[in-house]
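in:
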């Protein structure tokens, strides 16, 4: 049942090694993207099949599903969006922000679709390498790289974006004693302002990321840093994620482009040859429509920063959420249906452990919920205002409050939509709740749905082991604290 899903049949996983994208038709460039309606229909069939095939049920009350078709379509739409606005032959590397969905099979799927990896920790780098993403298609960002991480990245030839002057000094020391194939750049914060979600706005005046370009003396410091170091050939900026308007993102990119032009002018040569414009395309969590699309953003960029696409700069992008979010669904069984203060409450198995942001910041992170019956069929019926709760032991563990949905009853399933990025792959171990299994799905040849396990569910034994189970008496007994293994 849960084997490996077939690939595209090309077997050409390394076909994008030169970083140059082929032009692809703009067939998926419609508002609504590659068929929001089709996506919903695929999801309905997958939910039904998950119940019928026993992936979900009383003994497995929470699973996550990934729509492989949808992920491939989003990857293709991203490639074609930039191919449509760049001069022919422009090297473009789309590096998926691994933090959005840190699952090896997902990274492998994206790699097969011509998408590299943007990593920001030793763990993320290991995931990308395990997925087979080559060093030349990997970018290391992180505000807190250790000397060991930098050394490894340089040895592997992975692109490095330097966050601050102290990190640059470390690179000076490392490069004094060896050579590297790594392209290296500096991350700048254009300080163009924040978006709707403060915690995800990286271009505010006081953001912790990059060199704050408008601070006194900073711009001149950056230019000098490049003029003194011929090996600095890239420039990086990432203006923020969810909640940052496209025009503000484009302003951030424009500021980086203008700085690159200034550096190249003063260097008297094209020292900066590649601009890394980050990710951050917002996702529409309110409906099935894909909006904005990657194509729309590419057009906004072309309007705002025409020089970005004239072929003089190679491009790197780092999209995360916009590639994966809408292709993930969590299915949570309704364990109990009750009523409190006159309001129906469905107590499900999806709460703060898999929807941490939504539970702690519900205004910023509302999620759509769809109701399915115990057989996995979409529920019809009038909208009943109800709460959808999670399993955790605190009152705020709610996925939705006062939401009008067909009444959820015991044994039904609540589907939590658009959770393919930053949700079930970002488990939070509250109440020692288990990480749910993740399965990818595809239509099979016989008109059904085939599933492949991406990640097994965490077992209770795993939880015990990860919670010091082998050290039960570490804190008691005569020799406590004496270096016992
Ligand atoms: C988080 C992050 C991204 C991806 O952001 P999304 O909103 O998921 O597209 C890209 N680049 C950097 C440096 C990031 O920190």
């Amino acid at each position: 049942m849960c084997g490996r899903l077939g690939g595209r049949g090309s077997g050409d996983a390394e076909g994008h090694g030169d970083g140059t994208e082929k032009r692809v038709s703009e067939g998926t460039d419609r508002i609504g993207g590659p068929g929001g309606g089709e996506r919903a229909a695929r999801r309905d069939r997958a939910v039904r099949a998950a119940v019928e095939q026993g992936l979900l049920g009383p003994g497995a009350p929470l699973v996550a599903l990934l729509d492989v078709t949808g992920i491939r379509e989003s990857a293709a739409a991203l490639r074609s969006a930039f191919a449509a606005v760049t001069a022919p032959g422009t090297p473009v590397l789309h590096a998926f922000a691994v933090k959005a969905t840190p699952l090896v099979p997902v990274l492998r799927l994206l790699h097969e679709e011509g998408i590299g990896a943007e990593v920001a920790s030793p763990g993320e780098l290991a995931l990308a390498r395990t997925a087979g993403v080559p060093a030349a298609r990997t970018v290391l960002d992180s505000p807190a790289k250790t000397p060991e991480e930098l050394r490894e990245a340089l040895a592997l030839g992975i692109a490095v974006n330097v966050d601050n002057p102290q990190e640059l000094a470390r690179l000076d020391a490392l490069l004094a004693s060896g050579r590297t194939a790594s392209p290296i750049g500096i991350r700048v914060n254009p300080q163009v302002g924040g978006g709707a979600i403060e915690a995800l706005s990286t271009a505010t005046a006081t953001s912790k990321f990059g060199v704050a370009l408008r601070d006194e003396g900073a711009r001149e410091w950056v230019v000098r840093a490049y003029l003194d170091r011929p090996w600095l050939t890239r420039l990086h900026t990432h203006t923020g994620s969810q909640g940052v308007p496209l025009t503000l993102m484009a302003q951030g990119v424009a500021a980086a482009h203008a700085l690159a032009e200034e550096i190249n002018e003063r260097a008297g040569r094209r020292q900066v040859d590649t601009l890394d414009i980050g990710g951050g395309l917002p996702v529409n969590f309110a409906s099935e429509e894909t909006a904005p699309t990657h194509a729309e953003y590419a057009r906004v960029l072309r309007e705002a920063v025409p020089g970005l696409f004239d072929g003089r700069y190679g491009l790197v992008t780092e999209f995360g959420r916009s590639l994966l979010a809408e292709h993930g669904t969590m299915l949570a069984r309704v364990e109990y249906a009750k009523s409190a203060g006159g309001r129906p409450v469905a107590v499900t198995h999806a709460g703060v452990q898999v929807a941490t942001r939504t539970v702690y910041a519900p205004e910023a992170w509302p999620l759509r919920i769809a109701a399915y019956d115990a057989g996995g069929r979409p529920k019809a019926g009038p909208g009943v205002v109800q709460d959808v709760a999670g399993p955790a032991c605190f009152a705020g563990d709610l996925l939705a409050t006062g939401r009008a949905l067909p009444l959820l009853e015991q044994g039904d399933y609540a589907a939590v939509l658009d959770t393919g990025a930053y949700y079930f792959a970002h488990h939070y171990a509250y109440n020692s709740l288990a990480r749910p299994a993740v399965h990818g799905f595809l239509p099979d040849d016989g008109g059904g749905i085939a599933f492949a396990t991406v990640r097994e569910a965490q077992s209770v034994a795993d939880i015990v082991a990860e919670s010091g189970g082998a050290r039960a008496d570490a804190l008691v007994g005569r020799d406590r604290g004496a270096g016992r293994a």
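note: Residues 281 and 342 are 40 Å apart (CA to CA).
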